[in-house]
Amino acid sequence: MSQSETTTTTTTTTTGTSWNESCESLTASTASLQPQHMERPPIKSRPPIESRPSNEFRPKVGPGLLLFPGTAQRHHENLVPKSQSMNTTTTTTTANANSTSNANEDVVVVKSRKPFGIRSFRRPPLWPTRSALMKKADKLPAKRPEQSELEVEDSACIPKAQAFIIEFLQGSSIHGFIYLAKCGLNFLERIISLSQRTWQRFQTSPMVISMDRNKLVWNTSFPSLTVCPHKRIDDVKVDEYILEQFEDEDDKENFRDFIVKLASLTYDNLETLPLNKSYGIDSNNYLDILYELKWPFTPEISSGAAVKMFIYETQTEFGICHSVNSLVARYNSYYYWRAGDWNLLDHGDRVTVHPLDGEIYAQIINLSTAYDVYFHGAGDVPSISKQRYTFPESDYTTVELIALEIYTNEEARAFTTKQRKCRFQYEADGMQTVPIYSFGLCLSECRMFFALRICGCVPHFYRNLLRNGRRLPVCGLEGIACLVRIKREIISLKSDIYKINCNCLGNCDDSNFFVQSYRSRVWFLGANLQWGIIDYPKMQLRRDVLFSFADVLVYIGGLVGFFLGCSALSFTEIIYYFTARLVRRMFCN
Questions:
Q1: Beta strands 360-365 and 300-303: pairing type?
Q2: In terms of Cα–Cα distance, which of 189, 200, 169, 215 is closest to 69?
Q3: Distance CA 237, CA 47 (A)
């Protein structure tokens, strides 16, 4: 072999990566992917680079493994193009001619390339190392003299928190979260706005009112009524009271007129009460005087229904009245108030009728005076805003009514009152004067508190003892004069000057009755009243559950699973990340 020069070249190429090559920058999940640097045996001399085939340096594409979609980066090969190979650091050693025998033993020491495959995929460091934090701290502006140590620590925690959130987004099992931390995406690609209509629908309108026309299935409530007699003061009792209290003839006559008008006082006739003299009666004792001098009104009742009806004395906004087939009348009785009782009372069963029962009537006899009648449901009370009917004391009156009822499904009890938009009788948390809820009682309390807010007192026909033990002042002559000025607002509960917010919801189970016709004829035995239902309702309204919480889970689960690809286990992961793991990352470095 002729003497020639053999060139041994050692080429070192430096290739930058997008992350720190130190072991500290690797996370726990990628530390195992770092190739192990082991000493390899020297490689024998190979032909010069210029004489090698062009496709020899072409990397072989392997299957690879994308551990973290959207964030994994490919580890580039330590390759140098031909145009740049002459610019690298080259060490050339020329051997002598007589060293031919040792030429085959010469070796070329070349930096070993990292193999291209699964190990070349590695995600960038998600949690900053101590060295990275120190470098970042060196770039921060110097501490101001007035800057405290706490502010410095807070500024150092911000990159920690950012890195922790990015780590959660990139490592979460919720596939859609990866795109929130992926670089190069615009705002619309980062955030997928899920509509809140599903939850709003569950909170605002989960119920539906449907119409049921199978009239042979349900029972219809029998109409309840309240009778308020025009005569309320016993003349004999008044004469005895006058003889004991007054000596002046003018005072005797004026007091008689005063007590009669006080017994019939309501919002409609407030201005008729004489306000020039109180006759030594304290306003807190108005109700006691009226019950002491009241006329004994004892009507009798009979009906063709299978259930016995009861008539109860009750105190209303129209004075002392009597209610039939009512479930709330006894809570407004004078004796219930004076006893300071707040217990629930037994009113008996609600009287119902069926179309197969035929025509059912009830009758009140021995009225002995003219009277006003208010028709309402069994769970309601007469209201000043409802229509009333007046009948004379010498007529036998027959009233025929039609009914429209609404009932609520038992499944609706699991919903809140805001969702149902109605209240059951036992939901009396906001009531201050009675232990049950009724729409009519709620309106009465609203009028009472409005009068208290404007005039500083309440009318005597309300219960002035609240559930919390507070006793409200009863309006005297000056207070009644104040009520006269605002009586229009009190009756309608609407005002352009004052703010009125009753927040009264309807009864979940409610009955509404309308007078279809009535007829009267002169009756020699005195005033009698007969009422009933001839035409049974052909439809009934029902409040049913349309959108339950199970439907909410199905809707939201479908949306979140479709857009983000998460499941119930993913929410457990979120709780773990932002509790135990957050504490460990922030405080256990």
A1: antiparallel
A2: 169
A3: 136
DSSP class of 393: T
Decide: helix, strand or coil at residue 295: coil
Looking at this protein, which amino acid is placed at residue 491? I
Sequence-ordered list of residues with C-beta below 8 angstroms from that of 85, at least 6 positions apart, any chain: 11, 49
What pLDDT is stored for residue 78 in this prediction? 42
Question: What pTM does this model have?
Answer: 0.65
Q: What pLDDT score does 144 carry?
A: 53
CA neighbor of 388 nearest in space, from 379, 396, 399, 378: 399
Residue pair 75/17 in contact by the 8 Å Cβ criterion = yes
Q: Quick check: helix, strand or coil at residue 91?
A: strand
For residue 198, what are the contacts with CB-CB under 8 A and spacing of at least 6? 552, 555, 556, 559
Task: Return d(Cα 382, Cα 513) in angstroms, integer.
Answer: 12
Contact status, residue 325 vs residue 224, Cβ threshold 8 Å? yes
CA angle (181 as vertex; 175, 187 as ends), nearest 5: 105
Q: For the range 41-44, what are the long-range contacts, defined as Cβ-Cβ under 8 Å and sequence gap of 24 or more?
A: 42/107, 42/108, 42/109, 43/107, 43/108, 43/109, 43/110, 44/107, 44/108
Torsion on CA atoms 230, 441, 431, 342, rounded to nearest 10: 50
What amino acid occupies position 246? F
The per-residue pLDDT for range 10-39, each reduced to its tens digit, is 333 333 333 334 434 444 434 444 444 444
Q: List the end-to-end C-alpha distance of the chain, in Å, as a whole number.
A: 67
What's the alpha-carbon Rg for the chain, to the nearest Å?
Answer: 46
CA distances from residue 99 to 1, 10, 42, 107, 439 in whole angstroms, order as listed: 11, 20, 20, 14, 115
- Give 63's pLDDT tier (boundaries 50, 70, 90): very low
- The residue type found at 5 is E
Tell me the DSSP string of 108-163.
E--PPPPP-SGGGEEPPPSS--HHHHHHHHHHSPPPPTT--HHHHHHHHHHHHHHH
The residue ranking higher by pLDDT, 8 or 291, is: 291
CB within 8 A of 150, min separation 6: which ones? none
pLDDT one-digit tens code per residue, 342-389: 999 987 778 888 888 888 899 998 888 999 999 999 999 998 888 899
Count of CB atoms situated within 10 Å of the CB of 513: 21
For residue 533, what are the contacts with CB-CB under 8 A and spacing of at least 6? 220, 222, 223, 353, 359, 360, 400, 401, 402, 403
